[in-house]
Target: ABC-type Fe3+-hydroxamate transport system, periplasmic component
Amino acid sequence: MNVVSTSPSGTEILYALGVEPVAVSHSCDYPPGVEELPTIDTSRVDAEASADRHQQVEESTRSGHVYRIDSEVLRTVEPDLVLTQGVCGVCAVDESLIDETLADLDVDPEVLALHANELDDLYECIKRVGRAVGRGERAESLVGELKERVRTVEQRASSRTASPRVAVFEWMDPPRLAGNWVPELIESAGGTPLLVEPGDRTSELDWQTFLDAGPEVIVVAPCGFDVDRTEARLHELAYREGWAELPAVQQGRVYGVDGAAYFNRWTPRLIESLERLDRILTDEKSTLPDGVRRLV
Model:
């Protein structure tokens, strides 16, 4: 079966089930080697500063789509199945753009649009992909393994008496606190999500409300940024009035996380995100895991 994936999330699920796609999105970067596959799209967003990238996204969305599809690649790989997403046309190619493109091509693959807001949605996405590619048993087994890892973290977190107020930034300028599955991860790791509830959509943050809420732990994991890039752009938060007085800053509990690998994508690595968050909340200063860096 020839499978095309239009998002990093779909691609990672495929590989976790032992299926290599024939083409992927330009933003797919895991597992190693996936960058060698044909890519079906390019992005209209290329700015470095968070505010400039945000503006480019808004302009591209108003004029059509953030991404351009390479129709010739899609035609050449002759897909039987296209994994796309119905959740967001900003972070990856979505179902509407795929439908528009396929309408002009002489290929007629099945299109499976995935959507996730909470961990249970991730598990269901894995099962849906498994059924679509003939790996249903493997998908059920993988979901069972992931749920067991979540239970292990929750049991460990239950032994801690403190439940710090935790803020996870998905974007720095304008500032946005991560919603969807992230508040659920915070709760499972023994923290208290700041200003967001499980399943809430990510939205722009009122800075004064954030200051008043007094986060005790801050995790900065911008969408698509690795740790180096996050650290280089931290000034986009740190310049704001009141930043230096925040409890998390005063206590040296501000962490940068590879958002491209963890937190941003609804993939099996969300459980690795939970395990990293668990390590952060234990505040073991000398044993931070890969992909996590103390910034303050």
Notes: Confidence is low (pLDDT under 50) at residues 59-64. Residues 262 and 273 are 5 Å apart (CA to CA).
